[in-house]
Amino acid sequence: MKLLINKGLSRRILLLTINFCVLISLKSTCEGQELARVAAEQPTTSKEVSVSDRVRLLEDELERQNSKLDELQKTIADQQLAIKALIERLSPREPAKIEAAGNASPVTSSADAINANDQTQPQGPTVEQRLAKVEGQAIHIGPLRLSGDFRLRFDGTFRSASDPDDPPLQHLQNVRARYRLRLNFDTDLYPTLSFHGQLATGPLNNPQTLDQDFTGVTARHPMALSEAWIDYHPTRAVQLQAGRVQAIFADNSRFLFDDDIRFNGFNERYVLSLKKNGAYLSNIDFRAGQYILTNPNVAIIAPNSPLARAGQLVGSTGRSSNLFHQGVLVNQTFNERWSDQIGVDVQLYRNPNQIQLASTADGVALLVQPGLGIALSGPLTGIGTATTNPGGAIYTAPGFQIARLAYRLNYAGFKHSDHNFPVTLNLQFARNMGTGLNERDAMLASIQVGRITKKGDTAFLYVFSIKGANALISQVTDDDLGTGSGVNIRTSHFRFEYGIARKVTLQSLFFFQQSLRNSGQYPNFFVPLGAFAPTTYRIQQQIVFSF
Question: CATH code at 452?
Answer without folding.
Answer: 2.40.160.10
